[in-house]
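Form 12-C: Joint structure prediction
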Amino acid sequence: MNMKCAIAGLAASLVLAVTGAQAQEGLSDEIRQPTLDKLKGRQVVFVPMSMSFDLPEGWAAVMRKDAERRGYQLDIRDANWSTDTGTRAITQAITEKPDVIVVQNFDVTSYARTLKRAQDAGIKVVQVNMRSTYQTDAFVGADWYGMGEYAANRMLEVCGKSAGKSGKIALVQGPATAAASVYQLNAITEKLKDNDDIEIVSSQTGDWDQSKARGITQTVIQQNPDLCGIIGFWDVMDAGTGAAIQESGKDIYLITSGGGNKTACQGVENGTFNEVISYDVPGQGRDLISAVSILLQSDEPAGSEQFVLYTPNKIITKDTLGPESCWDLDVLKN
Amino acid sequence: MNPAVEKPHDSDVATRRDKGFVITQELIVAVAAAVLFVLFSVALDNFLTPGNLVALVRNVAVLGLLSIGMAVVVIGRGVDLSLVAVMAVSLTVSIVLANKGYGFGEALVIGLGFVLVVALVLGFLVAYVEIPSIFATLAVASIVYGLGRGVIADLDVNNIPSDLDWFLFIGRGSVLGIPVSIWLFAFTALVLYLFLRRTGIGRFIYALGDNLETARITGIPVRPVIVLQYIISGLMAFLAGAVTAASVASMNMRIVNSTVIYDVLLVVVLGGIGLTGGRGGVRNVVVGTALIGLLLNAMTIMDISYTVQNLIKSAVLLLALIVDALLNPRDEQTAQQGDI
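Section 2 - Result
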């Protein structure tokens, strides 16, 4: 008993002595410099679909700041809405042997072979938000399947026959082969296939274009006057879907999803959208720099480990809408 | 206005083969449209409702406006592949300026000024430098799009500032139950119909499309008339852009990379305006637009996938080109001067 007390007392005084010394000089962080050394001077190439819309602009803004802070080099090679240009950009990057390539795929197949080649050449590959069927070192982005499931469930609640509604819903998809389309569609159809409460009366692609989405929606509403809800696959495109609903004067529940740019919040505020599933681009940017940082620090060769960081979604509705719900590109850039 | 010019160009294939009943492409398309209309009315629920028919026309109003612009150029034996780029970028100019604090009316005028500058440059290149229109317009389209993406705006979708209800009315409002965009299409169709058929300058366009050299020898100011064609197509592009922007409260420059320009060509060729120039008119555009509108509407109702829709549209275009080749055979004159 006595002995124990003595030891405890000794330990306590030792701890006090050490912390006392720290209070005067601090303690050097021994992993900081090695970590910074691993990041400094490394090269990261980012190949977005196009540097002309909110998602890649937002990710790039976050990555640029981190690259500047940590001293690694970030090159952006714009695919400019063309898989050919994108493939060329990645192929070119492979010859330059950067440490990491970050890619936003147009669809689930086009880049698959090229990404494999990059990995075979020893370059680590991160796919952001829109993935390809080929799994690389890391995927950072929206959980499309989960979002599809969520939207389908909401439709069951809001539009289901047991909720006293017609049960008729429509889908406005993106391009048929884009990750956002295929995985969401899969979830929605899986979820609703054995359910008589909901009927999908139309499933068309708006091709990420507002005017096309608007035209399709007008026709679908005319065709199904008792349409209860629409699941749109991207908020920027669904500005057109919402416009068609507003023109029809009908009460149709529109769920869409997007990066959570301020236009999404404006859309919820002015009633264009009832619900936006936001995959929060600044958050994704943060995940992206974490993934890049982990890969740069790791000594393992490309392709040896595979991990996925699904974005925690925010649901934006009139009830949850707040000043922090959305982000502003101009602010993010500064 | 100018009977000397008016006489020999009463256009269309009909006058060329002077006797009896002649099957023109316009007639074929009109009949095809009528047959499809009846078919869809019987086969598709809710097709034949006033609401759907209004939606049908409204969905192709923008296409119709662009096609009228294209028609004017094609009649003068040219082609304007810059229409969609001009439409998207000019409105983007206006929207970007409006977001920077200009009054929207003022911003629209500046956007219109942009269109006129582009049209003058284009007209100059085709009429005076004598670059074939297909290359001149293709090059100018790339330059205009590049300006839009690289200089004018950072993002390719630009939203109209809020509280512009008067402008949104163009795209969303209705007068007497008919959407404003349809009225605009009808009104411009009428104006350009009268211009092409009833004014001297309109007849000049047919004359130089039919035979440029003869038109020149006859004393027609060929070059200024060519410039005028591009000004008209530019104005139509601007109008179409205004309707598009007003209907979705934004302008999307990505449309330049889409198939819209081919849809416009499809309407013009399908309607029976020969690519050899000098033939056809606004009526052909209306018929072509109607057929495309019917197809698009029915394919959406039938929930046909986008890829298959494009396949069907392309097949129809090919068919129209074949019929065009049969009905407007290349003769010695086109052999010498070439097509567009």
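Section 3 - Comments
Chain B touches chain A through 37 residues (CB under 8 Å). DSSP finds 16 helices and four strands in chain B.
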